[in-house]
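Supplementary Text 2. Reproducibility record for the structural model of the 117-residue chain.

All settings were left at their defaults, and a single model was retained for analysis rather than an ensemble. We include the record here because the model underlies the residue-level annotations in Supplementary Table 4.
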Amino acid sequence: MKVIRSQDPELADKLTRLLKKEAVLQGEGNVYGERYSARQIELSFGKIVQMEAQRARILKALRKGPASVKKLAKALKLVPPEVLAHIVELRRRNRVALHHIEERTPTYIALSQGDKG
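Retained model, structure tokens:
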């Protein structure tokens, strides 16, 4: 959570609130009365936190300078399709923008919270 908080404090707060609902989901259940097992919580919340941590690592790398998907994947030890999916989501959130295209390879840069790309 530390990595996420360093790159996106607002998102870290949202994730913290979500994680605090664990007891409610296991006890009372969701709005439909469905209760979650510890395993369901782990599978759901674990994946969300993992994905957001990867996105935070991508943002941190892009704050150091523009990079391509392939370069990011190599530096972060992730596969390029996974990095591309994160870039697409980060662009949707206005956190990343296309910086330039170098020999048909797009490079991206991190935007600050107020930028709109």
